[in-house]
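Students often ask why we bother predicting the structure of a whole assembly rather than each chain alone. The short answer is interfaces. A chain on its own may look different once its partners are present, and contacts between molecules only exist in the joint model. In this exercise we take three input lines together and write out one structure for the complete complex. Read the inputs first and try to guess which parts will touch.
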Amino acid sequence: MQPIPRIAAATAATTALALLLSACGSGGGEQTSAKDKQTLTVWGMGEEGKHLAKLGKEFNKKHPNITVKVTPVGWDVVHQKLVSAVAAGELPDMAQMGSTMLGEFIELDALDTVDQKTFKKDDYFPAAWNGGVKDGEAYGVPWYVDTRALYYRTDLAEKAGVDKPPATWKDQMDLAEAYKDKAKTKWGTYNQPANIGTWQTWVPFLFSAGGELLDSSGKPALDSPESVKALEEYAAYFDQGLSRKSSPPDYDVVKDFGSGDAPMFISGPWIVNNIKDQQPQLKGKYATAPLPAGESSTSWVGGASLVTFKDSEHKAAAKEFTKYLTSTEQQAHWYEIAKSLPAKEAAWDEPALKNAPEQLDAFEKQLKTAKTVPPLAKWEEFSAKIDEGVARVSQKGESPKKAAAWMQKATEGLVG
Amino acid sequence: MTAPAHATETAPRLHKGEATRRRLLLGVLWTGMIVMIAPFLWMALSAFKSEKDLGASPTVWIPDEWTLIHFEKLVKLLDIGSHFFNSTLVAVLVTVCNLVFCSMLGYALAKLNFAGKRPVFALVMCALMVPGNLMLMPMFVMVSKMGLIDSYAALVLPFAAGAFGVFLMRQFMTAIPDELLEAARIDGAGEWFIFWRIAMPLVKPALATLAIFTFLQSWNNFLWPLVATNDPEKYTLPVALATFAIDPTKTNGSNGVLMAGAFLVVLPVLLVFILLQRYFTQGIATAGLK
Amino acid sequence: MATTTPSRRGVPDRTSKVRSGAGAGSSPGRKRGPKLRRDRLSVQNGPGWLFSTPFLVLFLTFMAVPIVATFVMSFTDFGLRNVADPFSTEFIGLENYTKLVDDERFLTSLFNTSYFVIVGVPLTVGAGLFAAVLLNRGVGRLRTFFRVGFYAPVVTSIVAVAVVWRFVLDPADGLISNLASEVGLSSPDFLGSKALAMPSLIVMAAWRNLGTAMVLFLAGLQGIPAEVREAARLDGAGVWQEFRRITVPLLRPTMLYVSVMTTIGFLNVFEEPFVMTEGGPDNATLTVSLDMYHEGFRFFHMGYASAMAYVLFTVILAVTLLQLRLLKDKTK
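Now the answer. The structure tokens for the assembled complex follow.
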């Protein structure tokens, strides 16, 4: 009996070590042909990640040899998880990548180039395509685009004596006040006060004030008078108690929109779907509108591209799946499932989009004038500084001018 | 065990003030008990309340209708089964490793005399004081370089031999009479045999304590698994729950789903604790007494 | 070595030798006992090291090397690219540390962590001691019941507990706000308020950890002989005096252990703000560990994060030594 446990212990110790040492290095190996039996791993994000699995199954019916395995990752952690996966060399074959993240992953040399004979630049919205281009090479195929517009409760607006959508910043402020004072809602609107992604609601204010993220020489322009003005306008809602000054990490505005606590907010087109699913009683009681104008009504273009990672051994299959997802019919189909706007211009002529619910009109209109967020390698950090700059105004009570100067200083080292 | 001590303590003073004092004492303790248990009760009740009752005013304390809707939603959103499996597998492996490795060294430190014993013991004591967060960055780099990100090995190996376990086992091993081991040696038994067949069975209660503590610690471990796994399929329960709890696209702000998640994470541990509570309190007390 | 290595071949040989030695006479053998044992023990290097190997290998790989590596990294600009290629990182001297001194976020996090520890540790240890003293005053069979209840939060995952408490403290539908509305009050937004967020986390931490302190104190209290108490009472000492003059001094070693362990744990506080507040509002609950996680694993400034880790480690070391000093001196 005696030798067995001793051997067991010894092997346990040595296998531990062996395990540690043996697993070193496993680079990109042989490419698998698109005709072989294989599993394609894809990371999806946020709302879209949830729906992508469905498309994977449909694709599998047409290509029985390719099984698509979709892993949805939350937006809050997806950046760090993907970057860490690049560092560790443990990547999926493909991912849906947010437009603002492309710059960083191109810089990291983690993405495979796009075959521009198969995927043609001219088929896509230029803003979407250009976000994935560096030195003439494209690294991502645009999958969907989105932009931000205004959601507001029409029933409560009526109660508050307002019968048309707010067209200017002043209208918007008046409506928020009317909601609170006359319709007795808890808040007048929801401006995200702090934490990850705050920039998404503030940048529309910046662009509409006539401001820019970067000036013509590529330096941050966050202390411009326009930026200060955008911060002032954003902050006014907190100062007057029209928007909550803090929200829990998983705050979902749709819930408060449904209860009427937050009768107005700025967000993207997928919210139409969320409202239908989670607050069905709101049918006919809300509307969307283009962003109320400061100097102009200007939103930003976001969205996601499909990327294939350099180390993937299933590039041919990845190309097939990308082709499938970006085909005109699939783009229209995707719109029906996820209410994501097609990145391929031809898809907008499909019946699904022609007959879209009126709530989507605002987004379509907004898209025509929306500006791109510049592809920065350090956008994650850059945007975190904006998040913190806004929090300085909303939570610390710092003056917009001081906060703008702080943002400028904090971002200067992050460009170029 | 301690009942006689109380008898001698309280018996001579059983006059008038004593009854009121005892009532007061129990009052304070019951209040404390309610405070300690309230969050768990709240969690359990909320997990079974309908969405309507959750936000109702005036408050609905006991659900009108008990519903499993939050659990159904949770299972759709979160692959609880595989996270449960990950957590369990990792915790079992960590526990087994600790039982063997910590006992080995604990035995050596208590019962064997070898050159370098003192420095090794000093090392164990130092390791007890080192906060895990200190090593996070290089550990991530190492594990990345070894290609172990997203592997069970990465979650198990760094915790496979805890200093606390060594310390605990050493304390218990010291109490084994030397004569017993000596007699075995005289009979010609090898050290491994003595350790495995004589010492280990004698410290079974300590092994039980160590097993429970290690298992729990591993089960509740958070920061390292958060860093060492990227693929959500490899998340342990706490990592899955935490990333779920900060993701509005998942919870949609529903506290019911969150409470259902917390309920599933907390319940098994609480049940095990209540069943085995004797070992817990014994173990922690022994570990604390130097 | 040859005789100690427990090889099967050596066994009968050795036994016979020892047996014959022992058979020579029992009384001299016993007298020589200690010496004989030392002789035998002094030749156990082989098994001793063999038994130490698994721990030492793991310790070296996952503790010693990383501790040194963190230290080295804290003087470099270790970034994302270096994860794949660690040796191409560049030394930048003390730059990370000088940057930390000017880093408003880091200083805030250091302040918050200190706040958490300075208020949280005494609260936790005090509550644990209070509970232990009460439970030690003869509640009979109920003692186990209360002990289980008070200890229960300790065994549960901090993440789960943080999720639950986030809802308990929810200003709209939470437990506390519901209780408040029952008596016609309204509850503040605990986690959304700069002033209340940190105290809320502290109360929660005390709630979760007082069980450990309680169990340790209970063990310590049971170590105090009943006669000592009895003697004090016969001398006319009241409850308070007995507590002050007998319980507290005799519990000092336990108190030292509990305080040191709680402090180390609290200085690393991470899960609570990660789940409940994301460090907000206005960084009021940003702790060093959370800030380090952001720098290290969101932006991958690993050199900088390493410097943070070392500052925290130094603080932990200093506080531990200070506690050892303060509490030990008084025991004498």
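Check your guess against this: The radius of gyration of chain B is 24 Å.
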